[in-house]
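Reading a protein record of the kind used here takes little practice once its layout is understood. The fold follows as a row of integers, each naming the local backbone shape at the matching residue. With these conventions in mind, the following record can be read line by line:

_____
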Amino acid sequence: MLDIAGTWLTAEDRQLLRQPQVGGLILFARNIESPRQVRELSMAVRAVRPDVLLAVDQEGGRVQRLRQGFVRLPAMAAIAGKPNAEQLAEHCGWLMATEVLAVGLDLSFAPVLDLDFQRSKVVGSRSFNGDPQFATLLAGAFIRGMQAAGMAATGKHFPGHGWAEADSHVAIPVDERSLEQIRAADLLPFKLLSKQLAAVMPAHVIYPQVDALPAGFSRRWLQDILRGELQFDGVIFSDDLSMAGAHVVGDAASRIEAALSAGCDMGLVCNDRGAAELALSALQRLRVAAPSGLQRMRGQAVASTDYRQQPRWLTAVGALRAAQLID
């Protein structure tokens, strides 16, 4: 999965999208002007590659790429203190998924299942809560809303980024806790929601008491624990392999090979076209075929553009306004 620079496809973008090893495109804020423009961009991509997955990070709070013409969802931490938090989380999941699907995209990489230990600035308010049971309750409700709208859920960042203080975008975070400590807290949302999650995204965090490699490159984490212990049978997306936390295994070709070898089904290479092309060349050389199961991430419904007139929309927006979570 790669990205593009602008709000429309260039000839170079089209050429890249035609490569069979490209299975997805992720949009960032720079690619987005309005709902209509995103719909047109989605249609242009589909005209080149009808089967490609179209993704975005639309969690709410500060991680929300679709803004102009979209509901400004609250950070998930803001929901926890409300008396009807579970219902509000479900409303947020449904609203988010409905708006993303309505502009022709398939999925948002959500929800965040990291716990807030008041340590990680990069997680912080993106987390539902620091209590694993309560976080699971709210994330489960958010997922129900997503699924009701027709979107598959992606839990991130396995096995949990909440304890490691460093930001994996710019550094290599380390979580020094034992596997038993992680099992007792961070792993619980992933374990309890494993059957509701269609996909999981591992963290670029090293847990040295478990493996010397970051989780996204670790067969111990992805095969033994996620697939084996948690019995997860969905899709595994790598986090962005251009992030600093992924650089421990070498250049982009080495990173994509390491991620797929560890058990990832799709590697993301973003914000670095040279790295994306290098990763693509590696996949072409290795003759990697698309794994079965990726199509389960396709949006299951395309919301009509008049979704704001639907009773469920009016109910959801009204509830979030009454809770003072949106304007």
In short: The two ends are 34 Å apart (CA to CA).
